[in-house]
Amino acid sequence: MFDALTDRFTKLQRRLRGFGTLSSKEVSDALREVRVVLLESDVNYKVVGHFIRSLKSELEKKDITKALKPAEIIDYTLFQQLIQLLGGKPARLDASVSPTVVCLVGLQGTGKTTLAGKLALKYRNRKPLLVACDPKRPAASEQLRRVATQAGAGFVPAEDDVVKNCLAALKIAKKQGNNLVVFDTAGRLHIDDALMNELGAIQSRAKPHASLLVLDGMIGQDAVNQATEFHERLDLTGVCLTKLDGDARGGAVVSVRHVTDLPVYFIGTGEKLADLEEFHPDRIASRILGRGDLRSLAEKVESATSPEEQRATAERFLKGKFDFEDFLDQLRNIKKMGSLSKLLAMVPGAGKLDVDDHELVRVEAMIQSMTPGERRDPDIVDGSRRRRIADGSGSSVQDVNRLLKEFRQARTMARQMGGAAPGKLPKGIRLPGGRRRR
Ligand code: GDP
Ligand code: MG
């Protein structure tokens, strides 16, 4: 996610840290660089202007040129201002009313139907009901039926009279006790009057609690233009950005809140129904600035492993006691959680590790070809053992070498995170088992 953006910010921060104090020229150079980084990431130029002005005025307040550690102040201010730009506090879908009615709108292909399925999965204990609202495209209705089945949710097929169908669905929801109803409305290639009238009618008659505009995060500023147009014609309560797993440059995420004044509720980070995250401005800012997102990572791990497993692994990890048995357990958990590269992107400094998910299978095979002794103490794996492991797992000695090297790096990272610098875990992160790290 936002690799290029993160890369440039990390470099800028590293360079600033090289200075003892900063002259006002260096500060304005740094600001100019932030501007370039944002513009090149396709952030809307008005948003960039606003951001640079607010950053500058904050830095002036702190009289940065006299400060002892100016780089830290810039870091901190950049982080705080970015959080503000992204909306400050997270917007949460209030799903307490029953039924909570959510209407998804957006152009064709932005990810509405997928998002309907993702919401159904996330709120599965609210007994969701997904309603198809695109009678002109039978395939769209079928697709919604599929994701509903996958998520274990109820489904209402499309009918010619879309508004009537929505109202009927609300009745069904009341009768069946569905606490969440999602309208998957028709998309078009472009905004047109007929569509807007139809969506307006759904809004005024079925009165959804939330009308969320779904935007394709890959398309950068165009997404923001779409948002402005939709927002002018419909009552929207928020935005969801999809496809942020791809090469999304970050322009849409950074711009959309400021341009539309609409909060971002959810982001889609993959094609699977589990690839949904709530939008937390602080976590996203942290990822953009290359500090990782340990909190989201912790939540993912928690949702995939049992509390006992988590406690054991976390403690071993933080002690830097970490062998191939743990590694294998982790790989299996990671498989349960989805993509490894997505998870690594949340670890500070590890966002750039290049991991191919298909390699997991091969890595697992190599570890399985090790003896229990080798797994516990990988340092004993010498040349002939490497040959044997390679042969046993159908890989090459180079593959085994690489695995051992990566393992050592991971172990070093674990030791650094745990033993040397406990403060590196963000304050307030609760280790499984109740211990709080401060
Ligand atoms: P709709 O026309 O708005 O209903 O869009 P769909 O839900 O049918 O999605 C269009 C395409 O985008 C499909 O191929 C989805 O699998 C894909 N898609 C949706 N959300 C995401 C996402 O978060 N990440 C990725 N990589 N693909 C997505
Ligand atoms: Mg669709």
Topology (SSEs and partners):
Blueprint: H1 3-17, H2 24-40, H3 45-61, H4 70-85, E1 100-105, H5 112-122, E2 129-133, H6 138-151, E3 154-156, H7 162-176, E4 180-185, H8 193-206, E5 210-216, H9 221-233, E6 238-242, H10 251-260, E7 264-268, E8 276-278, H11 281-288, H12 294-304, H13 307-319, H14 324-337, H15 340-344, H16 359-368, H17 372-376, H18 383-393, H19 397-420
Parallel strand pairs: 1-4, 1-5, 2-3, 2-4, 5-6, 6-7
Antiparallel strand pairs: 7-8
Helix pairs in contact: 1-2, 2-3, 3-4, 4-11, 5-6, 7-8, 9-10, 12-14, 16-18, 18-19
The structure holds guanosine-5'-diphosphate (GDP) and magnesium ion.
Please provide the ordered H/E string of secondary-structure elements: HHHHEHEHEHEHEHEHEEHHHHHHHHH
**Largest sheet, strands/sense/barrel:** 8 strands, mixed
* Quaternary state of the chains: single chain
Distance from N terminus to C terminus (CA atoms, Å) equals 28 Å
Low-confidence stretches: 419-438
Task: Write out the strand line-up for the largest beta sheet, numbering strands in chain order.
Answer: 3-2-4-1-5-6-7-8
Classify the beta-strand content into a percent band: 5-15%
Coarse shape: flat
